[in-house]
Amino acid sequence: MSFFSRRQSRAGHEESVPVPPAPRYEDLSADRRSFLKERFMQQITRESALAPASTPVRPGRPGWRRRTALVAVPALLVAAVATATSLTGAFGDSAPSEVSAADYREAVRLLDRIALAAAGRPARTVRDDQYVYTKIKGSRPVSDEGTDVFVREDWIAVDGERNGLARQVFDKGSPSLDPRRAEGKMLLYTDPNMTTYREIEALPTDPDTLLKTIEKDTGGQGPTHGEAVFEAIAEMLPQATLRPELNAALYRATAKIPGVVVRQDAVDAAGRRGVGLTFHADRDNAVWVFDKDRLSYLGTNEVALLDVGIADATDQRPLSR
Question: Which one of 84, 102, 188, 272 has the largest count of C-beta atoms within 10 Å of its C-beta?
Answer without folding.
Answer: 188
